[in-house]
Amino acid sequence: MSKESSLKAALGEVSNFPIFANLKMSEIEALCAMGEITVTPHRQALFSFGHNANFFGIVLSGAYKLAKPTPNGTETIIYFSTPGDVVAAFIMPQPEPKYPVSAIAMGTSRFLKLPKSTYLNAWMKNPDIILRIQNLLSTRVAQLHNYKVLTKSTLSTKVASLILDILQKTNSQDDDLVLPLPLTRKEIADSLGASVEAVIRVMSDWSKSGIIETKDHQIKVLKLDKIIELINSAT
Amino acid sequence: MSKESSLKAALGEVSNFPIFANLKMSEIEALCAMGEITVTPHRQALFSFGHNANFFGIVLSGAYKLAKPTPNGTETIIYFSTPGDVVAAFIMPQPEPKYPVSAIAMGTSRFLKLPKSTYLNAWMKNPDIILRIQNLLSTRVAQLHNYKVLTKSTLSTKVASLILDILQKTNSQDDDLVLPLPLTRKEIADSLGASVEAVIRVMSDWSKSGIIETKDHQIKVLKLDKIIELINSAT
DNA sequence: CGCCTCTTTGAGCTCAATCAAGGTGTGTGG
DNA sequence: CCACACACCTTGATTGAGCTCAAAGAGGCG
Q1: Which of A78, A90, A152 shows the shortest C-beta gap to B145?
Q2: CA distance A110 to A43
Q3: What is the per-residue pLDDT across A169-223, written as a single tens digit (0 to 9) for each?
Q4: Contact at 8 Å (CB) between A100 and A49?
Q5: Which of A72, A93, A145 has the CB atom closest to B78's CB atom?
Q6: What is the phi/psi pair of residue B133, to 5°?
Q7: pTM
Q8: pLDDT digits (tens, 9 = 90+) for B62-78
Q9: Nearest to A230 by CA among A162, A179, A148
Q10: B103 touches chain A (CB under 8 A)
Q11: Packing angle of the helix pair B196-208, B155-170 (nearest 10 deg)
Q12: Strand, helix or coil at A225?
């Protein structure tokens, strides 16, 4: 498939995403100018922490974890980006932007890569988009605040809260309670600042009592009420 | 002093703040339209978590802690706002904004209160300002990320990191290493998600070894190198 | 003077980190 | 095709950082 036609196909995909909701096709085209589709295999980095940021973009399919290296060689996961998420947009206007995190594919994933110039020329000129980017940012901030509030809570509360966060973000229908991304225990641990072993202990208990079910890194919530209970029962 | 003349005086104050740097006085006037100066005594709330957000503004003097209540009745401090900080601006464009945190004065503080309408009519129409608000937000996000990276570190690392954060934000000259706001041990604890006692133990040790000095809730750093060392030695 | 906030120190306990060891599935190169 | 590396999951035992509880002193304020 040529670059042009694949981009055209991508336009159809992105037009359904909330970030572009209610925009004319011509506007969307302008916002995706110079776009290129990148396919990232499992565990490969789309961009790396500290590198010069010359592109941003939109997740088309799969998922990426946004992670930041810690002083001691490990990494902390800041955010899980799923299809429709705009990534690295808000650092574009900085004079010499560097990526504040690495983006690593969780399973084969597709990304619509847009050059910094498109942000400066199209995104920043569009009042609707600016507003949406700002809302997106403030949602992110709110989530980080929530995390901070949880610091003193027990690990099971944190895991429950993470699962709920991910569920709420994507699944609007309450009937299908499968997390839309393949999550390893290690990733949950890295995301919560906990050890893998501790996460496993919490989740094994839940599996045994039939609260969740794991199959092939897909987590399914069977008793949502129990999860919610765990969050609220925080002492 | 009449409302008008006090506002006029405030304009002189705010014109030095980075958010308004290099703007014409006429522009600043437009951005501060309908502004009112509020004086908040020690421990009083400027606004409260969950309430309807009909104003935002700029800290003129003193300081405010932005705190969010936790499920169990206590509170987590999200941010310390010092003079020049713009507060609650980015939630203004939301349809029915609620304050995501409470703002509580630390010592008698002064605040330039601007109605939501000023944000919608003036701030959002000014490209420079939008950009600066967005940068401000992304700085905040970066700080929250840093906090997340620290979760697994020891408490002394966290305290050291907090002190450094506050120092870097305000004091550009390295000669005067006094934190620009009155901080109690409890506030440090609430900000880091730790217990007061633990924070006291860490800081007493530092006082004894001459790394810091506390007088009347003013913290002075005597050996900055030791503080930095503590952060980097995070195993 | 009594109340309130803040600081301090001590003692015991708990949650989760760390260390250790073993199991499974997948991809890879000889 | 097999062996080996690698990523991930699991369970058990030990340990320690920091939480909780308790008690008390010090400054500020009405």
Answers
A1: A78
A2: 13
A3: 876 665 678 888 999 999 999 999 999 999 999 999 999 999 999 988 889 998 8
A4: yes
A5: A145
A6: -65, -40
A7: 0.91
A8: 999 999 998 777 899 99
A9: A162
A10: no
A11: 70
A12: helix
